[in-house]
Amino acid sequence: MVKLNKIYTRTGDDGTTGLVDGSRIAKSAPLMAAIGDVDEANSAIGIAAAALDAASDEAAMLSRIQNELFDLGADLATPPDIQFGFGPHEMALRIVPSQIVRLEDEIDRMNDGLEALKSFILPGGTEAAARLHLARAVARRAERAAVAAHAERDLNPLALTYLNRLSDHLFVLTRHLNAAAGGDILWKPGATR
Predict the structure, then answer these.
(1) How confident is the model at residue 7 (pLDDT cuts 50, 70, 90)?
(2) Is 116 helix (H, G, I), strand (E, B) or coil?
C-alpha cells in the first residue's frame, strides 16, 4: 500500500521524476506527458461524477474507471519486467484483459438502448454529460500521449487499448445520460452560414 508522510521530497527540483523501478526521467519526457494526461482525465471524470447521483450505476462505473486509471498510471510508470514482461505480478500493477472486457460490456449494454447516430453530436446536454464530454476529450489526449510515449519506449499494449476503450465508454455514457433527458444535441452542418 501507499503511505505518504511527506508530500514534498525535493527530488524533483532538478526537473526529473522517479519511475516505479527507481529510475529517473525528465518531467518533460513523453511518458510523463502521458501519465499527466491520464491523471487529468481521471480528475475530469471525478468532476463529471460529482454531477451524478452517487448511488447510480453510472457513478459506480466512473468510480471503477477512476481506480483503474490509477492502476494505468502505475502501469505506464513501470518498465517491463525481465521475467514477466507486461504481465501482472506482485510487484507491478498492470492493466489486464478483464478490465477492457468490462468496459466493452458496459459500452454494449448502454449502447443497446440508444438510437443509431445519424449525425455527429455536440458536446453538451445534461451537466454530467457535458462534463463527461470534456473527460472524453482529455482521455483521447491521454491516449495520443501514450502512443507518442510508446514510440520511444515499450508500454503495456493493454494500457493503450484501455485508453482507446475509455474514450468510447465516456462517449456512449454521455449519450446514455442525454437519452434520459431528451436526447443528443446534433451537429447541424453549416447551420450558421
Answers:
(1) low
(2) coil
Bridge partners of residue 186, in order along the sequence: 121
Estimate to the nearest angstrom the gap between the alpha carbon of 145 and the chain centroid.
Answer: 12
Distance CA 40, CA 32 (A): 12
Measured from the Cβ of residue 17, the count of other Cβ atoms closer than 10 Å reads 16
Q: What is the DSSP letter of 24?
A: E
Task: Look at residues 114, 100, 15 and name the one whose alpha carbon lies nearest to residue 65.
Answer: 100
How many CA within 13 A on the CB side of residue 165?
22
Question: Contact, 80 vs 39, CB < 8 A?
Answer: no
Over pLDDT 70: what percentage of the chain? 91
| pLDDT over 70 (residue 6) | no
Give percent of the chain above pLDDT 90: 70
